[in-house]
Amino acid sequence: MSKTLLIAFDAGDALNGAAFCQQSGAYDVIQIMGEPKLDLGAESVTTWNLPSQPPAEYLANALKDTCANYTRVVAVSSMQAKDGLARLAGLLDWAMITDVIEVVDETKFKRPILAGSVITTVELNASTCLLTFRPAGFGQPTIGGNSKQESIKPTFTGVTKRVSATVREGGRPDLSSAKVVVSGGRPLKDADTFEKVIGGLADTLGGAVGATRAAVDSGIAANELQVGQTGKIVAPDLYIAAGISGSTQHMAGIKDSKVIVAINTDGDAPIFDAADFGLVMDLYEAVPELTEKLKK
Amino acid sequence: MKILVPIKRVIDPYAKVKPLADGTGLDLGNIKFDINPFDEIAVEEAVRQKEKNPEIQIIAVSIGGAEVEEQLRKALAMGADEAIHVETTDPLDPSIVAMELQAVAEELQPDIILMGKQTTDNDNNQTGQILAARFGWPQATFASHVELGEKSATVTRETDTGEETLMLPYPCLITTDLRLNEPRFIPLPGIIKARSKPLHKRERQTSDTPRVAVLDYVAPPGRSGGKKVGSVDELISELKAKGVLS
Ligand SMILES: Cc1cc2nc3c(=O)[nH]c(=O)nc-3n(C[C@H](O)[C@H](O)[C@H](O)COP(=O)(O)OP(=O)(O)OC[C@H]3O[C@@H](n4cnc5c(N)ncnc54)[C@H](O)[C@@H]3O)c2cc1C
Ligand SMILES: Nc1ncnc2c1ncn2[C@@H]1O[C@H](COP(=O)(O)O)[C@@H](O)[C@H]1O
Q: Could you give the CA distance from residue A212 to residue A239 in angstroms, rounded to a whole number?
């Protein structure tokens, strides 16, 4: 069996991807942004140390030749991984599998379809493959090793021009890997209320903030906070959903949470079927009360 | 200017779908089908661009069995000018869809391919990127705003940490995200007019077989939720007992 190449977009991504790679055997890492923080037992770590993520066209062109030395090129599922790795799949003419949740054997993988309503086993009928995986199912990585490290300057080619980019980092933990996530839905009145009520509880718990598509659509929450089938997948120890009905599309993103709490005025809301603890209460009363009591 | 819009017929995204008991497929009795929501957004965007620039020609294309004609007619009713049906009942995967779309696009020479970021049934999120790479065209996935200029498209796209705006010289490929627009309600005259718009049928142009095949379908492990608590205090003590609050 030959080596796996992990494309890590930053140090956090390298950590999130390590357990999967350690289970697959020997692996190398290419890290796009920042310096590696921990030795995670890769044979080699090549850092590009870029100040921002390159557009997919540049990324894929720069990675193409290196990938040809591997039979598996993998990344933690994220929008940038899907953007870039699927482009690589086209350049290399390789197969690709998105959102792997379990490795059955070298050619068989499990992945959800239909917003997580069904789990499929897929078989790879090719020798090479790119894949993205959800780290939740692969446990914690072993820390330590003696990775060979080098820093290189890749050659970028492409015609895409980046005009501008907004990177919002509220100082909160990364949503995809946070231990606590507090999310809000449609009934949050406006962006300020959302930030005060949902953000307030999240900060008290040292957690990340998430939102439903309904909240994002109505401009209450930023797009990168959307959790669900077509947003981010989270797997915290504690997920608190306030004013969220529990659509299939939203649940697709939170099913791997250890404990789900739902706060909703409608006792029949579908979210209560999946929540470990349900509180039938107005979020405008429950969330501030919870925040206050947890501060003490 | 020519815009090619690939669309897929998918299981109604709001339907509750279960696997068959023997795991060989999905239980599709009584299930409705529709245009993939992201593809509907792509058609809508193309139509809105055409409303600004009547020179734009919109061609919808779908690969699949006879039944996909229903979704192509819907795209025509929304405002596409023509439709192409690549008729096949072969199993498909993103690589094959991309190859077939490439064959169509090589003939039509569109300036833009505008398509969904992912299908809500298979959730692959691959086909657009694969197709763009096969052509060597620039790509902007997850678009939330599109402006079509003389020589290039300016696309604002959603990223993991916010947004970015890219400028792509034509020809280019754009995939849609939910916030790009809200598809219109189709008025009756549109539906009637769509019946007389051209819908061309053609055969597959490539002969590759899928590199990724589904072996079985099972239901995910359920969550045994359902416990209600009566107050915030009770919630806090339950969470402490579970060890998720200190
Ligand atoms: C293609 C597609 C993809 C999608 N992808 C996603 C996705 O990734 N993520 C996602 O979240 N959605 C997604 N959706 C949307 C999804 O179908 C739902 O529409 C959405 O999740 C609903 O959001 P919500 O729960 O905030 O709103 P609603 O369904 O309107 O629920 C609001 C809830 O708040 C409760 N409530 C009202 N007032 C209060 C109060 N004062 N206190 C407490 N509770 C209150 C109500 O009882 C209700 O249950 C997608 C849809 C489509 C078609
Ligand atoms: N059978 C098909 N016919 C036409 N377009 C398709 C087909 N399958 C997928 N697509 C297009 O590819 C996009 C992404 O699909 P996927 O990569 O499967 O998630 C969809 O939104 C469609 O625009």
A: 13
Tokens of A68: 């040809």
Q: Which amino acid makes up residue B201?
A: K
Distance of alpha carbon A177 from alpha carbon A234, whole angstroms: 7
CA B208 remoteness from chain centre: 22
The protein residue with its alpha carbon nearest to ligand 2, atom 10, reads B8
Residue tagged 């390590």 (tokens): A18
| Tokens matching residue A99 | 């959102």
Asked if A15 reaches chain B (Cβ–Cβ under 8 Å), the answer is: no
Tokens standing for residue A247: 């659509």
Cβ A183 under 6 angstroms from ligand 1: no
Chain B hits for A261, CB-CB cut-off 8 Å, are 235, 239
Contact B112, B175 (CB under 8 A): no
Residue A1 has pLDDT above 70, yes or no: no
pLDDT tens for each residue of A222-280: 999 999 999 999 999 999 999 999 999 999 999 999 999 999 999 999 999 999 999 99
CB of B138 sitting under 6 A from ligand 1: no
What residues of chain A lie within 8 A of the CB of B242, using their CB?
259, 276
ipTM surpassing 0.90: yes
Per-residue pLDDT tens for A147-204? 999 999 999 999 999 999 998 877 899 999 999 999 999 999 999 999 999 999 999 9
Report strand pairing: B2-6 vs B112-116: parallel
**Closest listed residue to residue A211, CA positions, set A234, A186, A193, A184:** A184
Alpha-helical runs (H) found in chain A: 11-24, 56-67, 79-92, 191-194, 200-204, 213-217, 248-251, 271-274, 283-295
pLDDT at A49 over 80: yes
Q: Which of B85, B38, B45 is nearest to B65 (CA)?
A: B85
- Please check whether residue A217 touches B, CB under 8 A: yes
Give the tens place of pLDDT for each residue, B73-126: 999 999 999 999 999 999 999 999 999 999 999 999 999 999 999 999 999 999
Q: Do the beta carbons of residue A14 and residue A8 sit within 8 Å?
A: yes
Flag if B162 and A88 touch (Cβ within 8 Å). no
Whose structure tokens read 């999130």? A16
Which residues are within 8 A (CB) of A255 and not within 5 positions of it... i.e. 6 or more apart? A116, A274, B220, B223
Per-residue pLDDT tens digits for B127-151 = 999 999 999 999 999 999 999 999 9
- Residues of B with Cβ-Cβ distance to A124 under 8 angstroms: 211-212
User: Counting runs of H as helices and runs of E as strands, what totals does chain B give?
Assistant: 6, 15
How far is Cα A192 from Cα A212, in angstroms, rounded to an integer?
16
Q: How far is B132 from chain A (nearest CA, A)?
A: 7
Q: Percent helix, strand, coil in chain A (nearest 5)?
A: 30, 30, 40
